[in-house]
User: What shape does this take?
Amino acid sequence: MLLTTSTTTVRNPSELQRRIGGPRIRALVPYVVLLISCLVTGAVAVHESVTTRTRARIRFNNAVEDARSLITNTVDTHIALLRGTDGFLATKTHVNRAAFDKFVGALELPEHYKAIQGIGFSKLVHSADIPALEMQMKREGVSWFHVWPKEASPERQAIIYFSPLTANSHAALGYDMASEATRQSAMNRARDTGMPVASGRVVLVLTIQGKRQVGFLVFVPFYNKPAETLKTVQERRKALVGFVYSVFRSHDFFSQTLAAGTVGDLDISVYDLSKSGKRLELYDSATRRHFKQPQYRPLFQTTQSLEVAGSVWQIQFRTTPDFDAGVVSGRESGIVLVGLALSILLFYLTGSLVKAEALAEQIAASLKRSEQAVREANERIAGILQSITDAFVSVDSTWRIVYVNERAAQIASGSANGVLGRLVWDVYPEILGTNLERMLRTAMERKSQFTLEFCNDQTMQWLEVRCYPGSGGLSVYLTDITDRKREEQQLEERYQEEHRVSVTLQHALLATDPQYPGGIVIEPYYKPAFREAFVGGDFYDIFEPSEGRMAIVIGDVAGKGVNAAVRTATAKNALRALAYEDSSPASVLTRLNRVINREMQEGFVTAFYGVLDLQIQEFVFANAGHEPPLWLIPDRDEVLEIERPGTVLGVDPEAVYQQSRIELAPGHKLFFYTDGITEARCGVDFFGVERLKALLLEHRFEDARQIVTAITDEILSYSEGKLHDDVAALLLSILT
Assistant: This one.
């Protein structure tokens, strides 16, 4: 509101006294004005401080979630590497140190997985077999190998392979990990559950320049038969051969993992809670920063628990002095200083008016000076409002315009003087009946502020409207955002065009031969994980490689987007070409593996390929690291996993695949799927294979489409519609 004043001719002091009031009341006026001005200044400064603190809290929460996701995703990635190593060992009848080093070397751990120290394999060995093991390892070139420490335990877990093997890590070979309680506890849990398990905090055997480091290990059990066939704890213990494991130095793991996120302004401490409820420190970023301030109280902090491969980590997040310094905005200080200056000025002016009682001449002179000061203040305020690029309109409680700048008058196609005193609805009729009118009336009634985007349907001009209530009306700022909205529309149109290309490409990748021979029904399904990744790496294919035979393929290519689609097309088309000239699924996958190793520069592929002989209903198949299909036999109320271990495609160019065969009968069904189904999440829990088997049994007498619909509906319900990976599936049903 602009300041106004006027001059009055005072004939005698008694008349002035009657107009202003008694002496005691006049003496209080400057202090009341000062109090009100200070309160207003404080309110504005507090509002600015609260807004700044709220933004900082949001940034802190986002950084916390980013750190949790980075840790979880990194651990999941390394567990996938261990599972791949487990699959490699399962495909080999005999593995020596050179073969193990070659496989792990192909993973390029130092280049792509810097947080991991290496991958090793420990073997269960009885005391009586230790001399034979030591001789075998020495024949493989490990001249210094011996099982240590020497203990009387009948069963030892000796490290026989570790890659990459460096000068610092070779000393770990032969170490009996069962000799240390924390490692043994983790290995026992992994052995009995068949799942990856992370140990608690341990002192690592591997050293860096002679210094012992703390860290943790992740164990994946390796059995002498497929883990899925081991149903009880006793069976798993009996079948145990050893463990595939990885070693992580805590400091390196967390510092390198968190460096990829937006957590640089946070202090993060990680504690292991898995040992008798005690907090054992795994990592403290304050040590990395080389400072600790015991008396420092962070602005924000939180402590959260995170379950990682069967272990519980407690993570404490704290803001740093650098973060907190950014929250303290200089605007609050500026507001306070300017407000106090204005308050003191008003106090001085009011005091000057009170003192003018004694001398009328001094009052007149003071009033003239005050009038000049007010006029200059009005000119400055008017100049500021006129110079801003936003349109500004001020209305009183009766909706009449009390002030507009030239930009607001231009929007109304008039002049500033021509709209003053008029109703805002008459000057801007285009807002009548719109959401903007409703919001303005609500703001006037409730004394509330709001911000919204409004489009003038007549001029197609977009405005951002910000409304702030005052004691006698509303102040409204209007910013022209037409260019920004036009750019957003262009971006949306560009996305829609790319999306149409993606849809066409995805449909081409999932296209299959539409005609199926009599006696079988094949029901396919595909759903991407999220809108931006419509083109994914999951694929399937159905075709006739020769008369009387039906081929079925399902696979998953690492990655997303167009690059993954190109690799998917390469794998799918190459497999088709090989299948037309080779009748053996194992031979086709072996040759396809060489093609992928030669043609693809990065990534790997999982694939399951089988051929159904329509005459004798025999299904011959081979597997390259893909989820095993489920075999539903309705009359036996049984669901089996048709498992045939095999290395994923694109890792080992010398890999050779084996094939198996089963005989199908009328009523039998085979369900092929990708890991997007079993790894659908509800919180931290996976959907899993057992729930999938139960669904197949529950709907075993329904037709193929009904079964697929029931499964996919259940997956979407379980994950609350938020898939973390693409889902592809095929259901083969034998009718006659």
The domain at 92-321 is CATH 3.30.450.350 (Beta-Lactamase). Residues 1-10 have pLDDT under 50 and may be disordered. Residues 23-91 form the longest helix (69 residues). DSSP finds 22 helices and 27 strands in the chain.
